[in-house]
Amino acid sequence: MIYSKKVLEHFMHPHNQGTIPNPSGEGIVGNPTCGDVMRIYIKVKKKKKEEVIEDIKFETLGCASAIATSSMVTDLAKGRTLGEALKISRDDVAEALEGLPPIKMHCSNLASEALAAAIEDYRQKEKEKEE
Ligand code: FES
User: Fold this and answer.
1) Domain definitions of the chain by residue range
2) Does residue 104 sit in helix, strand or coil?
3) What is the DSSP letter of 3?
4) Which residues are tagged catalytic?
5) Tens digit of each residue's pLDDT (9 = 90 or more) over 14-65
6) pLDDT per residue as tens digits for the range 30-41
């Protein structure tokens, strides 16, 4: 399998790997076929009317592409508003990594889904606080 230079870089030296204690939101997704699991933690800060991802970390048990896409999605989402972060698609992640082999595209799905799940978890918690 041929990986791009960027994929190898992020796989060998992943960015934002680890956990956030007491995160604002946490998302976990897995792929039942390959068994890979990805968890994303976000710390959200309210700035005026915007909610911004101030910090983001991941823990991933999976293949090289799963690690690289986790690393890249956290880079892409850091400092973004929640609305902007939700627009990050699997194609954005794959493109930023200079492409993924076709059979590895589902790995970038996991990354954007885990991010969306963390945002959803945050929004749910905020809703519960209001009730
Ligand atoms: Fe399944 Fe990479 S092979 S996430």
Assistant:
1) 5-126
2) helix
3) P
4) 34, 107
5) 999 999 999 999 999 999 999 999 999 999 999 888 999 999 999 999 999 9
6) 999 999 999 999
Query: Which residue of 10, 63, 72, 90 sits with most ligand 1 atoms within 8 Å of its CB, as the best mutation to test the pocket?
Result: 63
| CA 31 to centroid of ligand 1, rounded, Å | 7
List residues near ligand 1 (CB under 6 A): 31, 34, 36, 62-63, 65-66, 104, 106-107, 110
Q: What angle do CA 62, 24, 15 make, to 5 degrees?
A: 40
Q: How far apart are CA 116 and CA 62, in angstroms?
A: 19
**What sign for the dihedral angle of Cα 114, 23, 119, 124?**
positive
Under CATH, what is the fold of the domain 5-126?
A: Sufe protein. Chain: A (3.90.1010)
pTM over the 0.70 mark: yes
